Amino acid sequence: MKTTKVIDSESFRRTVNRLAHEVVERKKGTENLVIVGIRTRGEHLARRLAKKIEEIEGKEVQVGILDITLYRDDLRGRLDQPQLKSTEILFDVTGKEVVLVDDVLFTGRTIRSALNALTDLGRPALIELLVLVDRGHRELPIKADFIGKSVPTSLKQEIRVLMTEIDHEDAVVLLETEGDGKESGQ
């Protein structure tokens, strides 16, 4: 399997910093802002963004973690027992400006599931989407508000985000696959 690194460690760091600055600039601060990461890599990205925003603004930003397992339509019938992890949102999302964070935007199905899960918890004033990588191939009318990098791909390619917290390095790699690229959801 051929792999190509599209974002190295230093570019990864700069991209997260830029995204944090973009969020602060668009929001004009952090007053009503909360950040919610989609498990698993979106969770780590959300924490990093919140930390960077805190460095920029000098104010803590609440971070929540969203598990969308039971909301995904692509897993129905494929798993006997879904691997449930917990949603950890210790604040009311009602009336908040939520930045929903994920690592890769592909078909839009993960985001649709996340929107369903999030609105089951309350009624945010606004939900904006932040992704590290947008690879195209949407099946649903979903568009990111903040994008780290757009990486056009074919369906025979896969984007993999590596994060220090899980993979011991920060990088984004492009993989050539045999299938149509949809099996992994990336």
Structural class, from helix and strand content? alpha/beta
Provide the CATH topology: Rossmann fold
Named CATH architecture: 3-Layer(aba) Sandwich
Sheet with most strands: 5 strands, parallel
Helix coverage percent of residues?
A: 25-40%
How many angstroms separate the termini?
16 Å
- Unreliable stretches covering 5 or more consecutive residues: none
Helix segment tally: 4
Number of beta-strand segments: 8
C-alpha-based Rg, rounded: 16 Å
Q: Indicate the mean pLDDT.
A: 92
Taken from the alpha-carbon principal axes, the silhouette is: globular
Question: Order of strands across the widest beta sheet?
Answer: 3-2-4-5-6
Task: Output the CATH class name.
Answer: Alpha Beta
Overall domain count: 1
Relative strand content:
25-35%
- N-to-C order of helices and strands: EHEHEEHEEEHE
Structure description:
This protein is an alpha/beta fold. The protein has one domain: Rossmann fold (3-Layer(aba) Sandwich), CATH 3.40.50. Helix content is 27%, strand content 27%. It is built from four helices and eight strands. It has helices spanning 9-27, 41-57, 109-119, 164-167; strands at 3-7, 33-38, 62-66, 97-105, 126-134, 146-150, 157-162, 171-176. A five-stranded parallel beta sheet has the order 3-2-4-5-6. It has a three-stranded antiparallel beta sheet with strand order 1-8-7. The longest helix is centred in the first third of the chain and has 19 residues, at 9-27. The protein is globular, with a radius of gyration of 16 Å. The model has no long low-confidence stretch (mean pLDDT 92).
